[in-house]
Write a structure and sequence with these properties.
By secondary structure, the protein is α/β, with parallel strands linked by helices. The protein has 14 helices and nine strands. InterPro entries: Aminopept (IPR014553).
């Protein structure tokens, strides 16, 4: 199972706040129940910091997180914000599990639509078995499916999101990056455009992390983090290359039966490319579990969501004189355009050599 280090998981209990008309009641019930469980288990961080029962290591991480939070709120003009002031010990590896689905011979994500949140390319469950049952149901309808564990989520400010115990499994830079990413979703969210939303949040994460490192004097931690980041970029590039190859195959004029044969050939070629990737990165095994899965269309689609438009957003930041307020204003202006127009604009920026550099 792919471990999503950061992921927007908009739980559709928002539907319950507006209307139940047309809703899938069992699904919304599990979402509401899961969210309520988190609310019931929240503990104020300031109380944990003053408690003699809180381990010193946990106190240190929570104090650091509060500092990073305050920095991000100032940079993103989210001063009146109560998110991430409380803590939940999940006592499990993930907060939720997302189901992704694509047709067998297409890279077009299946989407699910909810009031307020709009249409998104995943369906979230608080219980892994519920996610597995739903994935099996989609498979019976002929879809490729994939389940990804979620370590963080955002309710876009509808609730005061808590710090989760899954956050604290990270190093300092990765913890700050996650927080910046999740808060970015409260700055800008566009209905029915998951790729835009995730790419924006990823770009904000990158921008703020660079500034945070300088402010906190964390340069010594940068080389290891940057190496991991570069390795993940190389992994992402590998996945996007193969996604493009599948797109070309599925759009070709050959028969569906031949497409199925060629799809299996591409999957085998992808495994061979991963072997070469590992050799380039000193036999790094961190993606072995991911590659041990079926490598179906849905699995590849999860990687593209976060990165497809990020280069364009970073170029937009460069075009905005690396001013975060200007960048956010320009991003919001893009959000007012049609989906095709904003994607075209960001892709043009990415290809026009307008490069973001950390000065």
């Amino acid at each position: 199972m792919w471990k999503h280090n950061k992921h927007l998981a908009l739980f559709p209990l928002l539907c319950l706040l507006s209307t139940l008309s047309g809703c899938d009641l069992p699904y919304y019930w599990q979402a509401a129940h899961g969210q309520w469980d988190l609310i019931q288990r929240k503990q104020p961080i300031d109380q944990l910091l003053s408690s003699t029962h809180t381990p010193d290591a946990t106190k240190e991480q929570l104090q650091y997180l509060l500092q990073a939070r305050q920095f991000a709120l100032q940079q993103l003009a989210l001063e009146h914000n109560d998110s991430y002031l409380e803590y939940v010990d999940l006592q499990r590896e993930y907060v939720s599990w997302n189901v992704f689905a694509t047709p067998e011979l297409s890279m077009q994500n299946h989407t699910w639509c909810y009031p307020i949140a709009g249409c998104v390319s995943y369906r979230g469950y608080f219980d892994e078995q519920d996610a597995q049952r739903y994935a099996e149901k989609m498979e019976q309808q002929g879809f490729d499916t994939y389940i990804g564990g979620v370590g963080a989520y955002s309710t876009l400010g509808w609730f005061d999101d808590p710090v989760l115990s899954t956050f604290l499994q990270r190093g300092k830079l990765a913890l700050a990056a996650l927080l910046f990413h999740e808060l970015a979703h409260q700055v800008l969210y566009v209905q029915d455009d998951t790729v835009f939303n995730e790419s924006f949040a990823t770009s904000v994460e990158t921008i703020l992390l660079s500034q945070w490192i300088k402010q906190q004097g964390l340069q010594a931690a940068w080389p290891a983090y940057e190496q991991a980041h570069q390795r993940h970029q190389a992994f992402t590039h590998l996945i996007l290359q193969h996604k493009a190859r599948r797109d070309a195959l599925y759009q070709s004029e050959i028969s569906d039966q031949q497409k199925r044969i060629e799809k299996q050939k591409l999957i085998e070629a992808m495994r061979q490319d991963y072997t070469a990737f590992k050799q380039e990165w000193n036999d790094f095994k961190g993606y072995d579990d991911w590659f041990s899965a079926g490598l179906n269309n849905a699995q590849l689609s999860t990687v593209a969501t976060y990165h497809q438009l990020t280069p364009g957003f970073l170029a937009l930041y460069g075009e905005s004189d690396q001013n975060i307020a200007t960048f956010i204003a320009e991003s919001r202006a893009l959000a007012e355009r049609s989906k095709q127009q904003r994607h075209d604009r960001l892709n043009h920026l990415a290809s026009a050599n307008i490069v973001y550099t950390d000065n």
